[in-house]
Design goal:
With 241 residues, this protein is mainly α. It has one domain. It is built from nine helices and no strands. α2 runs parallel beside α5. The longest helix has 44 residues. The radius of gyration is 27 Å and the shape is elongated. The relative contact order is 0.14.
């Protein structure tokens, strides 16, 4: 009974970490809209020459803030709360593997996700808009070299281009750092800490095949459940007769 209590207690921790991560993603969605809205407000209905600073420089600044904000939120979500959530989730998977009488809920989740979990889609949620911000900065820097990097008095044009290049390089560095951190997010690495080769083999390797169906197939009802149901079935038959 004790192991069952521990198993169901894990869901409370998972709910707490998942709620925290969900709040961060909501903030990330608002950040994406704010960055795109700010850049759109700069472009629509304004003459580039009417700004005291080059319009292209301002757009790159907004996109850089967008990239930095998304990377910061990604760190809080994926490197903090998602790691905590995954650690609890892996413990639940280990309990399911060692106790066939426990419903393999997490194993079924992993099977439906091809043994990879959901972080691959979560990384797309952050990397997609971040890459869009970087591409917009490059387009502005290259395509709008003359039209967007001019001001009403012709000031700051040369320096703003140079600073714009630095900001774009900063965006590329931040995105590269995120991509470099992605391989360490796997569940297989966490499973290896249990030093149980059979458990680690459940997670996909280079072949991309997960083996959680073995845990699902081993699931059985608690001993005595079938016998406990027989008196009720006999009673129903007796009443029907």
């Amino acid at each position: 009974m004790e192991i069952h209590e521990h198993y169901w207690k894990l869901s409370e921790m998972e709910e707490r970490y998942n709620a925290s991560a969900g709040g961060i993603r909501a903030l990330a969605s608002a950040w994406i809209l704010a960055a795109l809205g700010a850049s759109g407000a700069l472009l629509v209905g304004h003459d580039p020459a009417s700004w005291p600073l080059p319009l292209g420089f301002l757009i790159i600044v907004v996109m850089t803030l967008g990239v930095i904000g998304m990377v910061t939120l990604w760190v809080m979500d994926q490197l903090v709360f998602h790691r905590l959530l995954s650690s609890v989730f892996v413990v639940g998977l280990k309990i399911e593997k060692d106790n066939p009488d426990i419903p393999p809920l997490r194993s079924m989740m992993m099977k439906t996700q091809e043994g990879l979990g959901t972080h691959r889609w979560e990384r797309l949620f952050y990397l997609g808009p971040t890459l869009v911000f970087a591409v917009i900065s490059l387009v502005v820097l290259v395509g709008g070299w003359e039209s967007l990097f001019s001001s009403s008095e012709g000031r700051f044009a040369t320096y703003s281009r140079q600073i714009g290049v630095v900001f774009v390089l900063l965006q590329c560095f931040a995105i590269g750092w995120v991509i470099a951190k992605l391989p360490v997010m796997g569940l297989r690495a966490r499973a290896a800490h249990f030093q149980d080769p059979e458990f680690a083999e459940l997670f996909p390797k280079e072949d991309g095949i997960s083996r959680f169906e073995t845990v699902i197939a081993r699931f059985r009802s608690k001993p005595g459940d079938e016998d406990a149901d027989k008196p009720h079935e006999m009673e129903k038959h007796a009443q029907g007769g």
